[in-house]
Amino acid sequence: MSTVRLARVARASAVAFSATAGLFLLAMVLLTVADVGSRTLRDQSILGTVDISTLLMVAIAFLGLASAEVDGRHVAVGMLADRLSPRRRMALSAVRLLLLAGIGLLLTWGLADVLVSAIDRAETTNDILRLPTWPAKLVLLVSFVLFFVTTIAKECREILGLRADRSDDGTTEPAGVAEKPSAPPRERVR
């Protein structure tokens, strides 16, 4: 799969996840309002509101991760990196890429293990409804995988962009810096 197609799939998935998070947020708000109304009017809470809200909150928090990364809405501090030469920025990006890949693999492996364990043990919430926890854990796993794929792809594009900025003679110029105009050509004396 080409990187352009992967980027499109990641962006479409991130938008779908973000929209799903919005719908879950709306559901959680409506459930909370209904629960407060039920307690006010009937002196009785809606059964399982806390369980459902907890699971929805987990999903809401993590479904937006990849979308924030695709749109560049994560907090980034470039004070150090922006002052480095392109060669050093490329080296820093390579280190970041390796760290992201390592952390991504570890988290994916751990979350997959937790998901399989929750399914094998038929894990449920502790409240009255005893809702299965695996759907929330599946959301965590899928959203983290999408986040790390998007982040790693973005870092690869950064490295390729820095590599493309290098000039032919082996020196590097910071991205966006225009070349100095050369001296006007001398007239040939005949």
Features:
190 residues, mainly alpha, disordered C terminus
Order of helices and strands: HHHHH
The protein's oligomeric status is single chain
Strand elements, count: 0
Distance between the termini: 60 Å
Helix content: 55-70%
The best one-word shape is elongated
Number of domains: 1
Strand count, sense and barrel status of the largest sheet are: none
Cα-based radius of gyration, to the nearest Å: 25 Å
Number of helices: 5
Proportion in β-strands? under 5%
Poorly predicted parts: 172-190
How much is the average pLDDT?
82
Structural class, from helix and strand content? Answer: mainly alpha
In short:
The protein is mainly α and 190 residues long. It contains five helices and no strands.
Q: Can you give a write-up of this model?
A:
- With 190 residues, the protein is mainly alpha-helical.
- Residues 172-190 have low confidence and may be disordered.
- The chain is built from 5 helices and no strands.
- Helix 1 packs antiparallel against helix 2 (49-63), helix 1 (3-42) runs antiparallel to helix 5 and helix 2 (49-63) runs parallel beside helix 5.
- The chain has one domain.
